[in-house]
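Repro:
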Amino acid sequence: MLKVENLAKYFSHIKAVDGIDFQVREGEVFGLLGPNGAGKSTTISLISTLCPPTRGEILYRDKSILKEPGALRQKLGIVPQDIALYPTLTGYQNLSFWGGLYGIRGRDLKQRIEEVAGIIGIHDRLKDKVDQYSGGMKRRLNIGAALLHRPELLIMDEPTVGIDPQSRKHILDTVLELNRQGMTILYTSHYMEEVEYLCSAICIMDQGKIIASGSRDELVDLIKGQSQVALKLEETGPDLVAQLEKMEGIESIKAGEDEIIISGENIEALLAPIVSRINETGHHILAMGLKKPNLEAVFLHLTGKTLRD
């Protein structure tokens, strides 16, 4: 459905997007995963024709949207990272306004607003002004505005930032339901657990580049055989890290103020020596647990940093 080829966007000396390639197949939830500043939102701006790329091509159903932007615009729904609503209007008035921009009128518009309100779960709040909504309610209405014209492709840019757990779960469940109904979704996030939960295909971005892509299982296979142990301590320090780095079998160590994450193949067999080495340095372990490989571990393996660094 959507194909991105050698796409780049430079702002002076900043390479916000630096030559990326990926394709979104019809009927899937495609995830762009990466930390803040990775280039995800710039990529979305390029795909949605808000700004031209420095180089590269974007094809929607084999048509260049750089040459024919109209081929995509009527088929595209955008849920921006920032709330795009009028706070002094009611929820109904906001949906009516955005639906009108897509040429929906009269009875069709009223019916579609009712349908969308049911999808996003705010039917009983439609008459209230948006400035009376909670953050989670605003996020839901933001999604509703993108659904009114029944888009073929829905792009959601960090749609759960700064909301409560209940609203977040509702949004994630809504994404899955929309996909079950046949909608293709491009979902960006820096929350690893969201992308793991939602997406059948994933690209990991960092510093404007795609550093890995595939299904969740394919990405985790990049560190197949590697496991992690997380140790909670009263405090850590360079002396402790230096001692642990001398041990055979340890591939990487990530240290925070009071936590150390140690990765390596067959890390379970090293637990006893690790504990002994930590005790020898005079540090005290408060808690310890094994961690299964996940997308966070993949990102750490590829970049040497966590998603939230």
